[in-house]
Design brief:
single chain, alpha+beta, 3-stranded mixed β-sheet, ATP binding, single-stranded DNA helicase activity
Length: 100
């Protein structure tokens, strides 16, 4: 997968997870501090045209097992604490904001 930048009429034609074929400009973006750069560049594509090959609708289907697991987790007395720890786990603290 590659970062794809869509502008103007191409915006909102696709959603994350869609398989697409695109035509565009492949760009490399260097570090802001080039003196200490390791030579690694972030790359992306600025799209000129896009064609949807397929939407991944199958992966979003909720099964009976998923529903049972959701109900099981929802019945826990510490559900708010669990959800608070699950939202942005790399950010320490601010639990009251995560639970809001």
């Amino acid at each position: 997968s590659k970062k794809l930048i869509l502008d103007q009429d191409l915006v909102d034609q696709v959603k994350p997870g869609d398989r697409v074929k695109c035509v565009g400009i492949y760009r490399a973006q260097g570090s802001k501090n080039m003196a200490s750069s390791s030579g690694n560049f972030k790359t992306h594509i600025i799209a000129n045209g896009i064609k949807i090959l397929g939407r991944d609708a199958c992966s979003s289907a909720i099964t009976h097992e998923d529903i049972a697991n959701i109900k099981k987790i929802g019945a826990r007395p510490d559900i708010l604490d669990l959800l608070g720890r699950s939202v942005a786990p790399s950010i320490y603290g601010h639990d009251h904001i995560k639970k809001a």
